[in-house]
Design brief:
By secondary structure, this protein is of the alpha+beta class. It has 15 helices and nine strands. One of its GO terms (cellular component) is chloroplast.
Length: 482
């Protein structure tokens, strides 16, 4: 009985598809299904552009790695050299490397002045770890309020050594105990290289162009069914989809960046370089913070100002689009599997189907307003950016809520899960490449990693992470017909 009913639904859908194609002037091809249309759409210049971007990014990555491997060997001459000349050249290289290490190391006089910064009322240092990169770590016991202790130590360090060094109260990744990190001030000012700036600019511009192209092309697969009361031709539908979705997409992205920059400015910090990886589907928006952030609460606000604001706007557009998806406003026709790709979208569509949404006779197609489509796509984009990876807003959110140690653990687990999910989808491979690329550095450490955010920020952060999981997970097949 189930096989017979499924066959009847397929016959009805084929007849409706044929009638609608003839009415809008499309070619009749009953053998053309969803996957074939998808393959044909990928042959457009938008699909070629997305594939070209991936290939260019991978080539740049391996060229950079090859250049770094080849650069130390540039001094080798093609002509043969005597053993004496080779020994002299190697001794000069070793002497130069030793001089560079000595220049990077903190002088003993400054190190002695740093030890005088601590006191019984601030921090009792028991161990000192010095590196060749100009970083000194002091392990010990924190005394009193972390914020007051940090202010006293910063003022003492500034009075003794000026603005040469920056003092941060960090969390030990091994045992989560407080540590004091003293770093050269220039190391905490991230300035992107020309190669990274050029790479991010090219990829971001191409992403915006591809986003506009995807929003302006109306494939024949979206015209397989039209509501009976919709008295609009194909040209009107194409114009409505182009103007609405393109303006909304660009507007949401621009508002997101302006809002995040404003939040960072209020906390006396500065955002670094952005790179948009939107072609091929919702991808990560990689960003960096170029100046130190004072507290974990400030880092939380900056993270929420990016992906959090985009998630809220997307959910509002999703609900408004479902409310407007009536007979006269269902300008886009999608299969019902489009809303079942997400657990949250599936539940919202089931509640809205009884009163708002318009469906075909067999229930396989659904009419949607452009607001709902933009809301679903950007909610997925916001959820991808809430993944707990270091270069995404999700990594900053987890770092602000749970600390450095938990953030590192969740980042490793997320990388493992993305690697396991990379087989059926190229999107996760792209995310893995982008977040571990040689073009990017991790954010600078916080000034105070010990003080936790308040309960309100914690509740908001947990709610956002739960929404992201509900959006990224598909709706189980057993729940679709409840």
């Amino acid at each position: 009985v189930e096989r017979h009913s499924r066959k009847n639904r397929e016959d009805v859908t084929a007849e409706l598809r044929k009638e609608v194609r003839e009415s809008v002037g499309l070619q009749d091809d009953e053998n053309e299904d969803w996957e074939v249309n998808k393959e044909k759409e990928s042959q457009t210049w938008g699909g070629k552009l997305r594939r070209a971007l991936v290939l260019i990014a991978v080539q740049l990555y391996f060229l950079t790695r090859a250049y770094r491997w080849w650069k130390p060997n540039v001094s080798k001459n093609t002509k043969s050299e005597s053993p004496k000349e080779a020994n002299e050249r190697q001794s000069k290289l070793k002497k130069t490397e030793k001089q560079e290490k000595e220049l990077r190391k903190i002088p003993a006089k400054d190190l002695a002045a740093m030890r005088c910064v601590f006191g019984s009322e601030t921090f009792f240092a028991t161990e000192c770890f010095e590196s060749d990169t100009g970083i000194v770590l002091f392990a010990g016991n924190l005394r009193g309020n972390p914020e007051l202790a940090l202010q006293k130590m910063e003022s003492r360090l500034k009075n003794r050594l000026g603005d040469k060094y920056e003092l941060c109260l960090i969390e030990n990744p091994r045992d989560s105990r407080p540590m004091v990190q003293v770093t050269r001030a220039e190391h905490l000012r991230i300035s992107p290289s020309r190669l990274a700036f050029a790479f991010s600019s090219v990829v971001s511009v191409c992403s915006f162009i591809a986003l506009a192209e995807l929003a302006s092309v109306l494939s024949s697969r979206y015209m397989t069914w039209v509501p009976p009361t919709l008295n609009l031709d194909a040209a009107t539908i194409i114009a409505s989809r182009t103007s609405t979705m393109t303006i909304l997409a660009w507007g949401i992205l621009i508002f997101r960046e302006l809002f995040q920059h404003a939040v960072a400015f209020l906390h006396k910090s500065k955002m670094g370089m952005y790179i948009y990886l939107l072609p091929g589907g919702p991808g990560p928006i990689i960003s960096s913070i170029s100046t130190p952030v004072k507290t974990r609460s400030a880092l939380f606000d900056i993270a929420v100002g990016g992906a959090g604001v985009m998630l809220i706007i997307s959910l509002v557009l999703l609900v408004a689009g479902f409310a407007l998806s009536g007979a006269q406003n269902a300008l886009l026709i999608y299969p019902t599997t489009y809303v079942w790709k997400s657990m949250l979208f599936g539940f919202v569509s089931k509640f809205a189907a009884s009163s708002w949404l318009v469906q075909s006779l067999d229930g396989t197609m659904i009419g949607l307003h452009p607001f709902s489509v933009v809301g679903m796509e950007f909610a997925t984009l916001a959820s991808v950016n809430l993944l707990p990876l270091p270069t995404l807003d999700g990594g900053r959110l987890v770092n602000a809520l749970f600390g450095r140690r938990t953030a590192i653990t969740l980042a490793r687990v997320t990388n493992l899960l993305l690697l396991l999910a990379a087989t059926p989808s190229r999107l996760w491979i792209w995310i893995l490449f982008a977040t571990s690329s040689e073009f990017w550095r991790l954010d600078v450490p916080l000034k105070n990693e010990i003080t936790e955010p308040n309960s309100f920020r914690t509740a908001v952060g947990l709610f956002m992470l739960i929404c992201a999981v509900a959006i990224l997970l598909p709706m189980p097949s057993t729940w679709r017909y409840l």
